[in-house]
């Protein structure tokens, strides 16, 4: 499982021109699910996500988590994060989870976050989405399980 996290001042996701999820300050999380991923892998990654210190404290150091600042989380499925890009000029997706399994684990992740964090918004699994954001910093990290 891979989560590309971006510290944002705002982010939103739209489907067919309609905004379906939006946050102010917080994390945009692009989530890629691989064949070997399961709920225990997801829990470890999500726990790290909630506690990963990427927000500045009063001294300007990255010492605060999204939980510490009570920021929002926008969770968006991103199939292409599971791509193998090591060889050639076209990505391979043999390590990506099958759509049904990926959707089930994505929805599990969304429910897990909603049960543990106050502000959680989401994209729509499998949809053609338009994601807008203002990356703060820019600050972007890849978390992997």
From TrEMBL:
Any single Pfam family the record assigns to this protein: Tyr_Deacylase
Keywords: Cytoplasm, Hydrolase, RNA-binding, tRNA-binding
Gene Ontology MF annotations: D-aminoacyl-tRNA deacylase activity
Assigned EC number: 3.1.1.96, 3.1.1.-
Gene3D superfamilies recorded: D-tyrosyl-tRNA(Tyr) deacylase
Keyword presence, Cytoplasm: yes
Keyword Cytoplasm set for record: yes
Location in the cell: Cytoplasm
Tree of life domain: Bacteria
Record-linked InterPro entries: Daa-tRNA_deacyls_DTD, DTD-like_sf
Residue ranges of the motif Gly-cisPro motif, important for rejection of L-amino acids: 137-138
Leading EC class: hydrolase
Catalysed reaction, written as an equation: glycyl-tRNA(Ala) + H2O = tRNA(Ala) + glycine + H(+); a D-aminoacyl-tRNA + H2O = a tRNA + a D-alpha-amino acid + H(+)
Record comment regarding domains: A Gly-cisPro motif from one monomer fits into the active site of the other monomer to allow specific chiral rejection of L-amino acids.
NCBIfam families given in the database record: D-aminoacyl-tRNA deacylase
The protein's role, per its UniProt record: An aminoacyl-tRNA editing enzyme that deacylates mischarged D-aminoacyl-tRNAs. Also deacylates mischarged glycyl-tRNA(Ala), protecting cells against glycine mischarging by AlaRS. Acts via tRNA-based rather than protein-based catalysis; rejects L-amino acids rather than detecting D-amino acids in the active site. By recycling D-aminoacyl-tRNA to D-amino acids and free tRNA molecules, this enzyme counteracts the toxicity associated with the formation of D-aminoacyl-tRNA entities in vivo and helps enforce protein L-homochirality.
Family: Belongs to the DTD family.
Subunit structure: Homodimer.
Designated name of the protein: D-aminoacyl-tRNA deacylase
Primary gene name: dtd
